[in-house]
From TrEMBL:
Gene Ontology cellular component annotations, sorted alphabetically: plasma membrane
Assigned keywords, A-Z: Glycoprotein, Signal
A GO MF label: semaphorin receptor binding
Pfam families (alphabetical): Sema
Protein name: Sema domain-containing protein
GO biological process, one term: positive regulation of cell migration
Ranges where the Sema domain occurs: 31-374
Signal sequence extent: 1-25
Length: 374
């Protein structure tokens, strides 16, 4: 597989920040919070602690919240928790607490829990953690849960949280382990996901399903496509979907494990390859390195991507803002870089580089050998 060689677009904005702790290098697990807001700070804002209508506090014996996903639709919040999905109205609260108006309890069935425990997982892991929470259309939510390491997806009414139709497999749409990172979005009725597809979390994938196009995925177990990726965010831009992630850099395999940040893209209307080449796999997949660094004679790189916004307007330009940190074995620091999506798209029209053998270094691909279409 070939990757663009051209340097990533230089950021329009670079803000240096202080990082209080070292970055966590686990792949592809979610990191713990970098910090927790103090209680006196929270007193200035309404909070959600799991209370429903008419209750002054959560019922005795209620478990702490384990919030995984939050989706805002106009003046309504949908909160994906462990075993629960809440609908919370954002009208001006009359107290210091937000309360849910509707609650969906979605637990794993006993047989799934038993199988999960037999595979060596702890009781607290064998629950249904909501890992995908999307608006499918104006009246329907699409929700996926880890379901005791047997992921499942279902549609629910946005008004009543009642199920709509039958549930479907969550494989390649939702991770098995609630600690594993994943992203998902709907575009033109198709679901685009980036996650791991198996119990052992060794098969990372960018996957398209549902809709009227064939199901496609990235090549399986090929480290030139992915090497221990941590998926952070996905955005739709033009005719492509862009995935932001970090991974182990194969182009630096002569060193110890080097983490770099990437942006990959796929064409929304990709029909896949032929029976001989890339059958049921992406033919439009490309990736490039994200460069967030302090320029100078010797660049100082912030290689560990932590968070990315959607596409926003900055000075009239369509950009995404991204938070980066340094690796845990480096000088602690973080930065916010802005990437112009027009320039990001232009990078994928640049030159490629390739590795001709496992022992060779990565070299530019001659222009006459670049495939057409790219």
């Amino acid at each position: 597989m070939q990757t663009p060689q051209a340097s990533p677009p230089r950021p329009a904005l670079l803000l240096l920040l202080l990082l209080l702790g070292g970055a966590h290098g686990l792949f592809p697990e979610e990191p713990p919070p970098l910090s927790v807001a103090p209680r006196d700070y929270l007193n200035h804002y309404p909070v959600f602690v799991g209370s429903g209508p008419g209750r002054l506090a959560p019922a005795e014996g209620t478990e702490d919240l384990h919030i995984q996903r939050v989706l805002r639709v106009n003046r309504t919040l949908f909160i994906g928790d462990r075993d629960n999905l809440y609908r919370v109205e954002l009208e001006p609260p009359t107290s210091t607490e937000l309360r849910y108006q509707r609650k969906l309890t979605w637990r794993s069935n006993p047989s799934d829990i038993n199988v999960c425990r037999m595979k060596g997982k702890q009781e607290g892991e064998c629950r249904n953690f909501v890992k995908v929470l999307l608006l499918r259309d104006e009246s329907t939510l699409f929700v996926c849960g880890s379901n005791a390491f047997n992921p499942v997806c279902a549609n629910y009414s946005i008004d009543t949280l009642q199920p709509v139709g039958d549930s479907i497999s969550g494989m390649a749409r939702c991770p098995y382990d609630p600690k594993h990172a994943n992203v998902a979005l709907f575009s033109d009725g198709m679901l685009f996901t980036a996650t791991v597809t198996d119990f052992l979390a060794i098969d990372a994938v960018i996957y398209r399903s549902l809709g009227d196009r064939p199901t496609l995925r990235t090549v399986k177990h090929d480290s030139k496509w992915f090497k221990e990726p941590y998926f952070v965010h996905a955005v739709e831009w033009g005719s492509h979907v862009y995935f932001f992630f970090r991974e182990i850099a194969m182009e630096f395999n002569y060193l110890e494990k080097v983490v770099v940040s990437r942006v990959a893209r796929v064409c929304k209307n990709d029909v896949g390859g032929s029976p001989r080449v890339l059958e049921k796999q992406w033919t439009s997949f490309l990736k490039a390195r994200l460069n967030c660094s302090v320029p100078g004679d010797s660049h100082f790189y912030f290689n560990v991507l932590q968070a990315v916004t959607g596409v926003v307007s900055l000075g009239g330009r369509p950009v995404v803002l991204a938070v980066f940190s340094t690796p845990s074995n480096s000088i602690p620091g973080s930065a916010v870089c802005a990437f112009d999506m027009t320039q990001v798209a232009a990078v994928f029209e640049g030159r490629f580089r390739e590795q001709k053998s496992p022992e060779s270094i990565w070299t530019p691909v001659p222009e006459d050998q670049v495939p057409r279409p790219r």
